Amino acid sequence: MISSLKRFLIGRPLKSTELGEQKLNKKKALAILSSDALSSVAYGPEQILIVLAAVGAAAFWYSLPLAVGVLILLVALILSYRQIIFAYPHGGGAYMVSKNNLGVTPGLIAGGSLLVDYILTVAVSVSAGTDALTSAFPALHAHHVTIAILFVVLLTILNLRGVTESASILAYPVYLFVVALLILIGAGGYKILTGQVSPELSAPIGTPVAGLSLFLLMKAFASGSSALTGVEAISNAIPNFKEPAPSNAAKTLMAMGGLLGILFSGIVLLGYFYGIAPSEEVTVVSQIAEDVFGRNYLYYFIQGTTALILILAANTGYSAFPLLAVNLAKDKFIPRIFTMRGDRLGYSNGIISLGFLSILLIIAFKGRTEQLIPLYAVGVFIPFTLSQTGMIVKWFRERPKGWLPKLLINATGALICFSVTLIFFLTKFSQIWPIIIFIPLMISMFRKIRRHYDAIAEELRVSAWEKALPVQGNIIIIPIAGITRVVENSLNYAQSLSPQQIIAVHVSFNKEDQTKLEEKWENWQTGVRLVTLYSLRRSIIQPLTKFIDSVERRTAEANYQITVLIPEFIPKKGWHHILHNQSSLLIRTALLHRRNVVVTTVPYHLKK
C-alpha cells in the first residue's frame, strides 16, 4: 500500500540513463530559479517606503535615488555571478568560490548561510503567499498555519517528482505574474504620461524633508536590497541545465536580471507618482493596481498572480538547496545521504529535509515569518560578499587573459555587498543578531561531522591483505560498499566459517565507479569472487535480492544454506550511527522472510 501511494504521488522510478531528460531548458529554468528574485518585487519597493514613512510622505521621493542604488547593485551582482558560472561550471556558487579561494571556513560560512537562507525562503515565501490568500478570503485566516503547511507539502511532493515535471507545472504562474506586472506598469505609465494622474499626489523631487538622516537612508537602501535575494540561485543550480550548461545558465541569469530590473523600477516609479503610502492592511502592489484599474478583473488577476508567485518563490529553494547540500556532503561536512539521487533522479533527501525544516519554522513562528525577512536578507548578503571577494583573489592569483575588467566587476560587487551587510548590522541589529551566534554553531557542527568522517576513514583504511586458504562449506554472500576495514573484518569472519564459496557483491550506480572498484579488488587479491551489479534506478535492494534469488534457485537441489553477512560498524557515539548503515537495515528488512537465507550482521566496533 505504501509503495502504491509512493508511485501515485511521485511517479515511476527513472533509470539513471534518463538523467539527461531531467535537465532544464532556459525557459523552464528561468521560471523555476527566478521565482524567488522576481517575487521580491512584491515587497522590495514596499520595504523602502516603510522606512521612509517614519519621517512622512514628503520623503517618498527618495525612493527613486534609492531604487537606482539597488539597480546598480543588481547589475554588479548579475555580472559577478555570470563570471562565477563560467569559472565554476559544476555549481556550488558562493560555497565553492569561497572555499577554493578564501579557505574552508569562509566557504562553510557561505554554504551554511545559504542552506539556512533557502529554508527561510520556503518558510517566508509560503507564509507571505498564504497571507495574500487569507486576505482575499478572511474566513481562512484561522487556518493560516495549516494552509501554509499544506502548500509546503504540495511543493515538496511536486519537486520529488523531478525537476522537469515541477518546472512544467510551475512555469505558468511565474510567467503570468511577469505578464500581470508588465500590464500594470504599462497601464499605470500610460496614465501618468497622458496626465490622468494628478502631480499633487506625490511630493516634488528635491523637496526638503525635516528629520531625514543618513542613517535612515542607509536603512531604507538595505531594506530595498532585500529585493535581490535569490539572484545567486542559478549559480548553485548549473547541473540542472541542459548542455551547454554554463552558457544556458549565464543567459538565464541575464534574462532574470533584466526582468527583475524592469519590474522593480516600474513598481517604484508607479508608487511615487501615485503617491502610495505603505499600509499594514493593503500591500503597495495592491494599492497601485486598485488606483490603475479599480476593483475589476485585472485587479484580481494581479492579486492572484502575486499570491501565486509569493508561494512559488519557495521553489527556488527546492531547486538550489539540494544541489548545495550535495557539494557540502561530497566534502563530508554534512551526511553523505544528501548525495544520493531518488527514484525521480532528484536529490530527494535534500528536498525532504528542506520541506521538513520549513514546516518546523512555520509552526514555530505560527506562520508569521515577516520578522525573519531581515535575517533572510543578511543571510544572502554575507555569501554575496564572500563570493565576490573570492573571485577577486582568483583573478589576482590566476591572471587569465582579460582578467582586469573581471576583477573590477567583482571588486565593485564585493564593495557594495560588504557595505549593505554592514548597513544591515548597523540598522537592524536587533533583528539579525541571532546570526552572530548561529553561524559559529553551524560551522562547529560541519567540522564535527567532517572529523567524524575523517576518523571513520582512517579507522577503515585497509592494511596489507593476507591471502586466504581455500576452505569448504556453505555459500556466504557479503554485500559491500567498497574496500574498507569493515569489509576486511567480514571476509575474515566468513572464511572462518569454512564455506563452500564466498561471494562479495557490490551494487553500483555509476559505471566508472564500478570499474574502479573491480580494479582495486583485483589488486587487493583476497581470493574472494567479486560480483558487481549495475543499478539503473539507484536501488541497492532490488538488484541484490534478485542476485540472491538466482543463487538460491541454482543451489536449491543441493539444499545449500545461503548466509548473507552484512558488514556493519559501530561508531564510538550512538548518534553517529544514523550517518551510516542505512543500507544494512534496508537489506535485512528486504531479506527477512527468505526461507533458505540466513541474514546476519558482522559488527566492527571502532577503537575507543
Automatic annotation (TrEMBL):
<feature type="transmembrane region" description="Helical">
    <location>
        <begin position="170"/>
        <end position="190"/>
    </location>
</feature>
<feature type="transmembrane region" description="Helical">
    <location>
        <begin position="102"/>
        <end position="128"/>
    </location>
</feature>
<feature type="transmembrane region" description="Helical">
    <location>
        <begin position="407"/>
        <end position="426"/>
    </location>
</feature>
<dbReference type="InterPro" id="IPR002293">
    <property type="entry name" value="AA/rel_permease1"/>
</dbReference>
<keyword id="KW-0472">Membrane</keyword>
<feature type="transmembrane region" description="Helical">
    <location>
        <begin position="373"/>
        <end position="395"/>
    </location>
</feature>
<dbReference type="GO" id="GO:0022857">
    <property type="term" value="F:transmembrane transporter activity"/>
</dbReference>
<feature type="transmembrane region" description="Helical">
    <location>
        <begin position="347"/>
        <end position="367"/>
    </location>
</feature>
<protein>
    <recommendedName>
        <fullName>Amino acid permease</fullName>
    </recommendedName>
</protein>
<feature type="transmembrane region" description="Helical">
    <location>
        <begin position="210"/>
        <end position="231"/>
    </location>
</feature>
<dbReference type="Pfam" id="PF13520">
    <property type="entry name" value="AA_permease_2"/>
</dbReference>
<keyword id="KW-0812">Transmembrane</keyword>
<feature type="transmembrane region" description="Helical">
    <location>
        <begin position="252"/>
        <end position="277"/>
    </location>
</feature>
<feature type="transmembrane region" description="Helical">
    <location>
        <begin position="140"/>
        <end position="158"/>
    </location>
</feature>
<dbReference type="GO" id="GO:0016020">
    <property type="term" value="C:membrane"/>
</dbReference>
<feature type="transmembrane region" description="Helical">
    <location>
        <begin position="432"/>
        <end position="449"/>
    </location>
</feature>
<keyword id="KW-1133">Transmembrane helix</keyword>
<dbReference type="InterPro" id="IPR053153">
    <property type="entry name" value="APC_K+_Transporter"/>
</dbReference>
<feature type="transmembrane region" description="Helical">
    <location>
        <begin position="48"/>
        <end position="81"/>
    </location>
</feature>
<feature type="transmembrane region" description="Helical">
    <location>
        <begin position="297"/>
        <end position="326"/>
    </location>
</feature>
